Amino acid sequence: MTTTPTSATNAAAPAPTTPTIIYSNTARFPLGQIVATPGALELLQETGFSAAALISRHVHGSWGDLCEEDRAENEFAVSRRLRILSCYRLVDAERLAATPRDKRSSLPTLWIITEADRSVTTLLLPSDY
Fold it and tell me: 32: buried, middle or exposed (CB in 10 Å: 19+, 13-18, 0-12)?
């Protein structure tokens, strides 16, 4: 039996620079009562998006179309029992990627807000706020 020695350069390969993201099916915070405004329900029906899927994203920390500062604020809010906001653009991924960030507010948008006391989570349009 013949063995081939491994290259020293392979053994000392640098660690990947991409951060590892671990997803869990455990809710990160309680939702309380889930409610929706009439406008939010109408938008969900018009676009065909699932309220359950969006709520699942929200409670698992997939905050949607937020800037890094707002994402960091949500991460802080989860452990400090502050209000948590997610923002979902109800369009396909291709259209979202093709829309400049400063123009995305014109896309069909749904917010999900969980109150600081975790008593209620509301699905609403930005104009309902």
Answer: middle
- Its pTM stands at 0.80
The answer to whether residues 82 and 76 touch, using CB atoms and an 8 Å cutoff, is yes
DSSP secondary structure of the chain: ----PPPHHHHTPPPPSSPP----SS-SS---EEEE-HHHHHHHHHHT--HHHHHHHHHTT--BS--HHHHHHHHHHHHHT--EEEEEE-S-HHHHHHS-GGGGGGS-EEEEEE-TTSSEEEEE-GGG-
**65-101: per-residue pLDDT in tens?**
999 999 999 999 999 989 999 999 999 999 999 999 9
Other CB atoms within 10 Å distance of the CB of residue 88: 23
The pLDDT value given to residue 24: 62
Within 8 A by CB and 6+ apart from 71, the residues are: 63
pLDDT reported for residue 19: 57
